[in-house]
Amino acid sequence: MKTTLKKMLFFMLLLPLSMFSQSVIKGRVVDSGNAQPLAGVTVAITGTKTATSTDNQGNFTLKNVKNGNTITFSFIGFNSQTITYNGQSSIEVSMVAGDKSIDEIVVIGYGKVKKKDATGSVTQITSKEFNKGATPTVENLLNGRVAGVQISTGGGPASGSAIRIRGGSSLSANNEPLIVVDGLPLSGSNEGTPSGSRNFLATIDPATIESITVLKDAASTAIYGSRASNGVILITTKKGGKNLSVEYNFQYGSGKNKRKINVLNAKQFVNAIETYYPDLTNQLGIDDPTTTATDNLLTPGIIEGRLLYDTDWQDEIYRRTDYVVNTLNLGGSLFNKIPTRLTVSNTYQEGLVLTDRFNRTNFGLALSPNFFDNHLKLNVNANYSNEKNKFAATPIGAALRMDPTKPVYSGNSDWGGFTEFLLNTTTSQLASGGTRNPVGNILLNDNSSNVNRFFGNFQVDYKFHFLPELRAVVNIGIDQSKGKGVNQTSKSSSVAFSVDNGTLQSNKLGNYNTYSSDLTNKLFDGYLNYNKKFGKLELDATAGYSYQKFERKVFGSGNIYNQNEIADTYTAPDLVLIGFFGRTNFTWNDKYILSLSYRRDGSSRFPKDEKYGNFPGASVAWKINKDLFTESKIISDLKLRAGWGVTGQQDLGENDYFLNRYQTGNPDSQYTFGNSSYIVGIPLPFNNKLKWEVTTNYNLGIDYGLFNNRLSGSLDVFYKESTDLLFREAPFADGSNFSNKGPQNVGSFTTKGIEFNINADIFRDTAFKWNLNFNTSTYERRIKELPAGGDLAVGGIGGGTGGTIQIYREGWTPNSFYVYKQLYNAAGMPIEGVFADINGDGIVNENDRYIYKNPDPNILFGFQSNMSYKNFDLAFNLRASIGNKLYNNVNSANAYTNFLRDVGSTVGNIPTATFESGFASSGNNVIFSDYYIEDASFLRVDNITFGYTFPQTEKRKSTIRLTAGIQNPNFLLFTKYSGLDPEIFGGIDNTIYPRQEQILVGVNVKF
């Protein structure tokens, strides 16, 4: 008993000593190249679960450290570093930049994988690599960064973008990639874009995004099956950390329009009217109230009886713009238990067109606690946004046509005080035709909207205690939006709705339309994942189930001032998608990898017998460097990849094409029975045999790294074929349906291409750092089969009597231009209305149109440069598109001397290009001439940003970074295209919204 007591007493005496032997160490981690703090560095006691991470200032606190412990510092993009603890109270660690790709984790469908183990064509861009400058929407972060990804963004505020991965995979169905945010697939079609929103990505705050991963080949996308034929973009948002961090970001931009269509100025216009239409000189300018004289044709350049102005109508409808972004990020551990991230931001962006503006407020919350020794992990992501828009009328065409000798304002109250062409100046009756004042069109219209959106997910990830190799994951998500708006036009507007004679202001009633939508997207995903290593074999298997439901209800009041228009509420049939999926990865000896995936998807868009589709995928990889170059000091990474897979397409725009459908006729088209009139029910075309459009994809790639991955990149070649193409309108046999055309599965087309990417750390271990990234891609699309083997006319154009300028034809690129071959005189001038007799039958008619060029580029380039020296940094990115062609519809619709005389004996302006062709009229098929097909190749710098960082000091516990730059500099756009901008999606240029040049300044503060 005494012995026991002595032992207990001895233990109690030693207990304080053992407690004092466990210490706390504090410190700071910086970049060895520029002495800047590194946030997010993992600081761990080697061989234990004790770890922490650095905050935004690079500071850390690590508890329970014992003498002799080894502390490891690790961070992606830097070489890991270790120190031995010998009682130090504080330390500063300088980390050396290294190969970020060695242990980089890449997000894939329903999981993650180390980049070095990926078998598909996958590219991940992190927040540090995002494009700089003005990035109001998500896709702006990615433009030009990934080989094979083409993004064409409009010029308006938070404008939507056309995103194409490897050229798309369909002719008539949706070609946009699937967007997945934190495991929640979003829809960019009718189901996902609320009324009153700029686009379905406009409500997402780019400041909350940590990384964007692009899945390009079917081997990596097949697990998403039903919507993966156009590729998949996975967005991962930022999460909280263990240490408190505060970050504030402010950005301001001032924008101007730097590019205009060249039209005649006032002096040139007067000269042209006197030359071609001297009888219309009294239509120029406005009446001079001091005289009753009329124009004397013997005094050219002087218009008696008229007051002439010199108005640049493009300058009048455009303005200087403001762009303001405020973002506050708070990160840390709530109750010292729950890693939390809270983001509050506001983005305000004005468009170039008067009154056009976008205002978005975002709140984002992320919680990521774990329990039971990391066996249970929870992830909560909640995002709310409020988007307020003022949509401007965009009478850009009217600004090109309006008489430059007229003033903007008339000086009286008629027609809102704006100058118009008048038939009678006493009654202010409008001329029956002619161009209406574009400024008045804009300022007398108010189209405003308010959109509220909430989206997020709750994920439970449980690692079984009795079998830690097995995880169960459940992900529940929701995306709900409510949009509403009012579009009203004053009755003082010359373009307002009217009864009877619309040229009299007393007959104008104006316009008042309300619209709204209620959209809901619900998701349930559940899957099991098993990961275990058996000797040299590593097995990673996933199997699960997915259910997603889209609900949509929209309302439009119509113009309440028009008694012939009635309100309409439309509740779309629910879209339900069900999927069963699985994937197995086998890795042998960390050298040879086999990945197999399968998904069986069901869509409510198809009839019972065609509801389900099967989408398998397979890929292999061989790490060549581990077999053949194990001792090489040059080749640090070399992996050969090959993949095959099948993906599906079911988004044809409507959810019930396979059902018998009816729509009501117009109120003025009714049947009368007895004393009652009834609106007609009109049957719509349908197809009860619709089925999945299927794309089969083959990919061969190689990933490489040289000189300790100082140079790294990839090369991919691919081929894909889409069959059973979904067409909204393909011809039916006569009498077989309620229309002669409707929805069908017909046809096929192929795409093949090459992609190359290289990333180079020119300098990375010195005070001066320089990283370059270059990517390039080329692809070729060909139509193999079309409905009934016939041509399909596409690409509607304005001018003349209208028509189409593009064509689908078997054996050719989709949207190829279908034109007449222009003939020229000996002086090289085009001869108006004279074309080549292509078929040699002695008659020039529709049969002599031929296919000439297409909008697809021959090759695309992207280039990014990031340099830093101590506290200074400089970044820029540029893009190039070579070989793409455009149809200049601005010139083909307007560049004719006859157009100086406008409707109603008024006058209208014309482009200066009119006198380059000498064309007088758009008749005789002139608008279909190949003369208007132009080379639209371009090289443009998107952004240049210069920054300086004030590092943390003992007195100032924050880092401050100041930036200045320029967005879309006009002087760094190089092109031979004669129009406004060569970067136009679809190949037809018809008065687009111009892109603004912005001067940007910003400040970022981290505490």
Oligomer class: single chain
Give the number of helices: 9
What class do helices, strands and sheet pairing give?
mainly beta
Q: Count the beta strands.
A: 62
Question: What portion of residues belong to β-strands?
Answer: over 45%
Shape: globular
* Integer-rounded radius of gyration: 33 Å
Which ranges are low-confidence, i.e. pLDDT below 50, for 5 or more consecutive residues? Answer: 1-21
Q: Largest beta sheet, briefly?
A: 22 strands, antiparallel, barrel
Q: Termini separation (Å)?
A: 59 Å
Please bin the fraction of helical residues: under 10%
Question: For the residues shown, what is the average pLDDT?
Answer: 90
Tell me about this structure.
- With 1007 residues, the protein is mainly beta.
- The longest helix has 19 residues, at 2-20.
- The strands form 15 sheets. The chain has a 22-stranded antiparallel beta barrel.
- A hairpin with a 3-residue loop joins β32 and β33.
- It has nine helices and 62 strands.
- Mean pLDDT is 90; it is low at 1-21.
